[in-house]
Amino acid sequence: MKSNKNDFIDAEAIAEAVDRRNMRFVPIKTDDQLDLQALHRVRDRLMLRRTSVINQIRAFLLERGMVFAKSPIRLKEAIPGVLENANENLTPRMRNLIAMLWSEWKDLELQIVEMNDEVERIASSDDACIRLRRIPGIGPLVATAIVASIGNGAAFRKGREFAAWMGLVPKQHSTGGKAKLYGISKRGNCYLRKILVHGARAVVLRSKRDRIAMGAWLTALEMRAPRNVLIIAMANKLARIAWAVLATGQDYRSAPNTLAA
Hints:
By secondary structure, the chain is mainly α. Helices cover 63% and strands 3% of the residues. It has two domains: 28-125; 127-261, no CATH class. The chain is globular and about 75 Å long.
């Protein structure tokens, strides 16, 4: 790296990078990948906006002495009654503000449902997404996000590189022949890592382990590792399996669970 920036230094840096044999190049995304990526970004923004609206409604009502359960479902069930009940401790101006936020919440719900339906349609028609959805813990949302991010996985030589790219491997700081490993690095695509961890959590907490190939491995690891470590390890394994499915073009094959037997 050279100080300052101009066209000559940029051109020199590009020429030097191209000449290096171990340089990693990012494949150019197709139009379909860009569309999928944009769809996920818009959906994620709508989800954040919905959470913000819910928190604001809850805060306004809390200031007036109205407390509701933590779940958004409970608040959604209570808002119509709050707006219709004239005996509630709400001024006309505050009632109008809550009604406006309630209308915005319902609009956001409709938009998110439309986004989810669009993701489901894409995941049901794309061959790569169909193969990925056969993996436990990977649904339409995770499948489309993986395809939008890496396509056929050609940018990585093996599944571990894909897992490391998402930050699902330990952070390393080794020197003098002494290896030091810390928590996961949390590098790369944080959105993809987040939803993949959610999928792994569903497998760990809700799957019937005698029916999946990873059941015996999960049970053995659970006996010696904390729950969160188990979930991250599961996400790492799902990432490697997903890369293998995309890179080989083959369907996911569940190996027989011999340990459980």
